[in-house]
Amino acid sequence: MPKPDPRVLARTAGNYLKEHPEEIVRALRSALGLRASIPMDALRYLAREFVPDNKKAPKDIVIEAAPPGIRVAATVDAMGTPLRASLIVHIEEIDISLTEMRIGVRIEGLTLTVLGDSSSPLAGLLKSGALDLSKPGNLVAFMPKRPPMLVEAKDDRLTLDLMKVPKIAENPKVRRYLSIALPVASVRAIRTKDDHLDVHLKANIGGLPQAIAAARQTV
Question: Hey, which bits of 155-211 come out as E strands?
């Protein structure tokens, strides 16, 4: 995966704001309401620029707001079977601490369309309708190689813990920033609205001394 260049990201963001000055007003209004409003265009840019270009990576990624969730579609290769996958992701649980970054998501409207004339076992199951796509969590639970961050999968719900990813858990900057931010702010909800991803925050002024102490320790 290409490594993000902060200068390129800053330049791209600046150009975007020049073309969409209304985003500045929205950002200020959102900040007053303790929200961070991220244009879906930003997510599309990240997917376009930083998803690796190899055979196993998703192709033709589409990201759209489906309030309050996010609709994602992509062409993927699953067990040698080319598929067009589409689903809506609802973020229903967020629990972030110094030891866990748990995110509970609900999957809605999953469709898997076989591309071409594949005759693989998976293609046969999908074409016959034998797989219950209304409960994707049950399908994921039987994956032979589940990613470490997937801690629970049942029915239409998946629970992820990003701290199970070594690059995140072992990154000293992550723990440093969390120790400063968590005493004063937490994420209450993540929803889409008007082609934006809104991160709703909850402030705790009482935790300010702890955050200041943590900031001083990291200097």
Answer: 157-161, 185-193, 196-203
